[in-house]
Amino acid sequence: MNTPSATLVIGATGTTGRRVTAGLTEKGHRVKAAGRSATPVEGAQAVRFDWNEPATWDEALTGVDRAYLIPPIGSSDPAAVMLPFLRKAVAAGMRRAVLLSSSAIPAGGPAVGQVHEELPGLFEEWAVLRPSWFMQNFTGSTPHARSIREDGAILTASGDGRVGFIDADDIAAVAVRALTDEKAPHTDLILTGPQTLSYGDVAATISEVTGRSVVHKHLTFEELRDRWAAEIPLDFAGMLAGLDRAIAGGAEDRTTDTVERLTGRPPGTLRAFVEREVK
Known about the structure:
The chain is α/β, with parallel strands linked by helices. Helices cover 39% and strands 17% of the residues. 42% of the residues are buried.
């Protein structure tokens, strides 16, 4: 009897990847959990994978017919390594690809937008997930979480612009459907939470739930770019600061019904997330 094909999950221990892996294994699907360290993941086959090391690609692709694709973190030109890998994947028999992008980046746009543009021409079955900003950006070791803990402030250049913040649990639930439904979406899917909020609203919610005083501190584009540039390359820092400037102009002031339409349940609220995750 032939062994069923597996789903390759790249970044399987990351924010969305570990949730996608868990969602697939819970439904009985075989998963190859790919990452630079081949970290063991319960219920999945761990495999070493690095976008920048083509020698790791063959083992990752063996026996898989679909993949969840997380671009290389911090790269302003992910297409340079992703497209050669994806062409190799097609030649190896992969037929479905689900790409994690961003609501701020359209097909043909900067960074992963170039991969998005090429995906329909490469795969018979495909989807591009374009989530809004993650609620998880306010937890763990992220810049916002650190500044909340250390300074009682969220620092952005987004002004009073509003964002449809989304829980990574909801992104993963959509990804699992896009990977496993009989018919692939064959489109890009903008994913948001149930409401749009300013960073001032977020700070107020965190304050109310945790009892700690948290405020939103407004930075200029240049101040935010330079703050990011202390940790990441300047061109990527400039791109991220530019996304904040776009939020200030209303670019992310929208909600969609995609999560509920594909999963059958409404997306989680920021307050519920804060009550669950923000300590």
